Here is the input.
Amino acid sequence: MATLLLILQFLVSIGLITVVLLQRSKGEGLGSIGGGAHLFFEKARGIDQTMERATTVLAVLFMVLSIALTVVS
Here is the structure.
């Protein structure tokens, strides 16, 4: 069981890294602290919205798998 969870977590982590790297850069990094409100209130469209959803799903799945591996081990 632990081996299956480890393999799933590995695949999810590779997918999460890929999705995050494929996303479009939205800001200026730390330079947006002073006045980058448009970055937070702008609606995502098309592929950006799909990437955001995929990131959220994969991140939650990664967390659940991490907890499951902790309980199983």
